[in-house]
Amino acid sequence: MKKENVPVETRQTEKGSGSMHLKIKVYSDYVCPFCYLAEFPLQEAIRGKDVDVEWMPFELRPYPNETLRPEGNYLQRAWTNSVDPIARQMGVPIKLPTVSPQPHTHLAFEGFQYAKERGKGNEYNHRVLAAFFVESQDIGVIGVLARLAGEVGLDEKEFEGGLQSRKYRDAHEQALRHASVQVGGHGVPMFVIGDQTLTGLQDRETLEAAIEKALAAGQEG
After folding, report:
1. How many beta carbons lie within 10 A of that of residue 19, not counting itself?
2. Which of 7, 64, 84, 101 would suit a FRET pair with 220, their CA atoms being 20 to 30 Å apart?
3. Is residue 212 assigned to a domain?
């Protein structure tokens, strides 16, 4: 059964007396297919719990490093041997984007800072991931990002102006410095749940167990 293409909400809450609020941080990059797939078991794991999800930027190949090409052997093998089989098992529609070379993601992440400032960070994050991995849109282009921002209720012109002026570059670079310490050589997606760190794509049961442990221990994240 295919899963609906819907975002992990900023917060899904079912409060009880004495419940503890938990924040989960997820480090990811917009060109990482496993970061897109990670949304779906996480959405299931947090349903009905007093949990915030905060997506954190991590650039796998920051500018000016060369990015990968979909026609190259590395991505072809990775998708054939890993991404496609896992996605089929999960029931999540995804395809190898045809954008070549793949875009750098600093502008998309600067847009995320704009969206986050306006309470739309998670919605924007999901829309950008889906645009790349479902629709093969070039998320390295400001005009494309502005249109996606508009689709989640943000002001397209203001968003575009912010990216053109690089208004959010410092905020993004500060977030990257934090991520480089947290992620190190572990890779993404990476989940920080209370005092636990989980690296790589996780199933719902593993995430739920980590969340329940953190909630039971009163860890706020």
Report:
1. 12
2. 7
3. yes
The amino acid at residue 27 is Y
The rounded distance, in Å, linking the Cα atoms of 53 and 67 is 28
The domain that holds 174 is classified in CATH as: 3.40.30.10
Residue with tokens 């706020």: 220
- Provide the domain count of the chain: 1
Percent of the chain past pLDDT 70, that is, above it, reads: 90
Tokens representing residue 207 in the block: 């995430």
Distance (Å, rounded) from C-alpha 117 to C-alpha 214? 27
Q: Are 33 and 200 in contact (CB under 8 A)?
A: no
Q: What is the pTM of this model?
A: 0.90
Domain residues for the domain of 109 are 11-216
Whole-angstrom distance, CA of residue 196 vs CA of residue 97: 32
Buried b (16+ CB within 10 A) or exposed e, 51-83: bbbbbbbbbbbbeeeebeebeeeebeebbeeeb
Task: Identify whether 40 is part of a domain.
Answer: yes
- Alpha-carbon span 65 to 42, nearest angstrom: 31
Mean pLDDT over each residue of the chain, to the nearest integer: 92
Q: In the structure encoding, which two tokens stand for residue 190, read together?
A: 């990476």
Asked whether residue 129 is domain-assigned, the answer is yes
What's the pLDDT tens digit per position in 114-133? Answer: 999 999 999 999 999 999 99
